[in-house]
Design brief:
The chain is an alpha/beta fold. It contains twelve helices and ten strands.
């Protein structure tokens, strides 16, 4: 199935005004409902979309938002698009392209396949600028039709991973690592060399372990400790020890072509909530967390 076959030029907007997310949704709903008969339309549909948005963000780092509604007694798929000259702030993510997808309640596969295709498109910044500059829905459909974009049969890790993750050098001091963990709210980081080649991972437990003397690790119980004095070893060495000295080099990693069920299996099998994503050349291309799977696939 071609993506262009699911598009209606009358449901594609080009907006130069400064609008809120709610205003964009209302414009798309108004345009869609004017040309299609849906079980729910108007303000009722807008509120359903906003309610769905409140559960988890529908925005992606590439500047696209894909709000989605599954309807009872609606046996079709409708897509509305809005290209925005003035981006909308989705809780810190700047969105220039909104794609509203309305499907049947049983059509979870078509939605995931659409997400994969739209996400791939959103990574092509020059193309998105071109589509935004066309200023005409028919021209957008024709341009996408010429590209013959197929709706994939499955969504892969490369479609949902964080493609520009925060990384750290093996030569970085522990003080730098601690600062990143603290300021970014992260608990794991991929370690790379100057050419972005994957070397391993370091997590917050690696860091905390520096402050635990070896003799304590040999004890069965440390409940007798009432102060954090042993942990002061970490404070003393954070400016001298490097990430290389505490990182894990034998961590499992995943390929961007890995299927989502396989990602979940690997997370459960290895008791890992965080995986680095490495291509065939050994370079880091992204990271994925269990929360990413839950938000972007399960609760999408």
């Amino acid at each position: 199935m071609l993506l262009s076959n699911l598009l209606d030029a009358k449901s594609i907007l080009h907006e130069s005004r400064i609008l809120s997310k709610e205003q964009v949704y209302r414009l798309l709903v108004e345009r869609i409902c004017h040309h299609r008969k849906l079980p729910i339309c108007g303000e009722g549909l807008v509120q359903l979309i906003l309610q769905r948005d409140s559960q988890s963000s529908t925005a992606y780092p590439t500047g696209i938002a894909i709000p989605h509604i599954r309807m009872e007694d609606f046996h079709d798929t409708v897509i509305g698009m809005a290209f925005l000259q003035n981006p909308i702030d989705y809780e810190g993510t700047k969105v220039e392209w909104v794609c509203l997808v309305i499907t049947d309640k049983s059509s979870s596969n078509i939605y995931l396949n659409l997400v994969a295709a739209l996400l791939k498109l959103s990574k092509d910044a020059p193309l998105i600028r071109e589509l935004g500059e066309l200023r005409d829905g028919h021209a957008v459909v024709q341009r996408l039709h010429k590209m013959e974009i197929q709706i994939k049969r499955e969504i892969t890790l490369g479609d949902i991973m964080i493609s520009e993750p925060i990384t750290i050098s093996a030569d970085a001091r522990l003080s730098e690592l601690g600062a990143i963990f603290s300021s970014r709210g992260l608990t794991s980081l991929p370690v790379v060399d100057n050419n972005n080649r994957y070397l391993g991972e370091v997590n917050i437990l690696h860091l905390l372990k520096v402050g635990v003397p070896d003799y304590l690790m040999m004890l069965d119980n440390v409940s007798f400790l009432r102060s954090y004095e042993p942990l002061e070893k970490l404070f003393e060495q954070e400016d001298t020890l490097t990430v290389r000295e505490i990182m894990s080099r034998d961590e499992e990693y995943l390929n961007p072509d890995t299927s989502i069920p396989e990602v979940v299996f690997e997370m459960i099998q290895h008791h890992k909530r965080f995986f680095s994503v490495v291509d065939d050349s050994g370079k880091l291309v992204g990271v994925v967390t269990a929360s990413d799977i839950f938000r972007k696939v399960i609760k999408a």
